Structures
1.
Amino acid sequence: MTDTRSNAPFKVTRSRPYERWLDSLLLGCWGLSVFAREKLILSEWTAGTRIGLLEGLRPLDKIIGTSNEWGHVFDLCSDIGQGSMAVLAIFSPFLIKGEINRHRKLPTPWLLRTIRLFRAAAINGVLLEWVRIGVQRPRPYLTAKLQTGNTALAVSDFTSFYSGHTSFSFAALATLAFALRESLSQDPNPKPQDMRVAIMILLLAVTTASATGLMRVLAGRHHLSDVIAGATMGVISGLLAARVNHRARTD
């Protein structure tokens, strides 16, 4: 008897009950992490952790300097880049031919990708906040701020490590790569045109995510090492979310 499993298209499964519980747990942990950051940063309990920490990264951080004149412009560009990555991760796989022809009993593909992106953002958010609590690295602009006589310190002044914009962008990149693979897997023999479109989408996403990180450095919001660490943690978060959420499997 001929085995037809190898020719069966890949499709996305429904959320399982444990996945819905996991979503609630992640959301709760994310909220608690943000609350803890506001309470613990600048407190006496953690005030000593930032002294001398990450000093060895200073040579790396000097590779790219900040721009005081255009800082607000670069800051805005990084916000746009972060939002663009979310849009790419959710909607760009529709450019793959046949992407919208999923099983009609399943939720729409954009909703599945939105859930996966949310999970990646939640995992990254929990990791991000607790790393920031532990490190409490001053932002690059803090020295200039103190030199102007402004001694009113805020929690956000000590959340440089690691970059949230960059980590979210690369988490979206990881989920997008998984979604593109999933879309191409629907066809046992993907057309060369679909492969080219997928590669172009991926290159655009890599460029956008990298530019977002660069903008954070130029805006004076982060050191270069913060951005590199953010990119690494973002990819890890995206891959963890992809492993949990709606895995591709054959009939």
2.
Amino acid sequence: MILIYLFRGYISLLREKYSPGGELFDQLCPLWADLEDLMIVCTSTIRYFGPDRLDITVKSGVKSFAPTWDMVMKHKRGEISDTQYTDRYLRMMRTSYLDNKNGDWSAILNRRRVVLCCYCAPGNFCHRHLLKDILRDLCRVKNIEFVDGGEI
């Protein structure tokens, strides 16, 4: 299974490098058709600026995936636990999905690779990891191969 992920990742990199539009690579590599339903999800701090970056912060990010200021501040002050934050964030994302499934959610699920970015330090509790888990579940439901790209 790991070799399949590595192969798919390598094919994805080749496709982006040698045929940004994809047409030439698709003609030269018919295997690509079998690899369309793949999503690689990574996480990083807000300092990551690659082309696959997705800012999911309440301050400057895509609102469909961001927590509220109230949640962030209460968590920072210790007024709500990680579990309480998780419960609130999951409820928010369920509502967000219902309200935006043909917009922001469809857009993120159609990306080959995405890096979820936020201000939290690596290794700390953070909603970017919660969103990655949500995307894993959505990929399973939609028959999209999910690859956890880890923290960048």
3.
Amino acid sequence: MLKRLRQFSDLPPAEKLAVLWALFLVVGVRMALWTLPFRVIAAYSARGVPTSRSLASVRLGRLSWAVQAVAKRVPHATCLTQALALQMLMGKAGREAELTIGVTRGRDRAFEAHAWLKHNGAILVGDHSDLASFSPILNRALPLPTSDSIQERA
């Protein structure tokens, strides 16, 4: 525990902010997925958020790392939890990303679903060794906040 706190304290300030936002989003998304219909979560997340200059300065790989590091410590933080949380975090950082949810039949013919997040064609979370076997049923990019929406919320 102390080692993790020391690692956190050694992070640059913008990355500390990214980890704190990742914690808030992963826990919030996980709780929402347990208690709310997906359409409600999708509508809420599609509202967009004002961008943060501090988060905008954090490299994309570090935003992804922050969500994945937090998700390891949050019970049942599934691929969908991570993809939604990272998509919202990237929106806060002023970056676009596309959420995809796909389905397939497993080896035992059981229904399987998987979620992943892409930015400019690169998979940020949810990379799967057999991703090509999943048929996409949802592709959704969040709208980036405009300068008008940022001013409205200020």
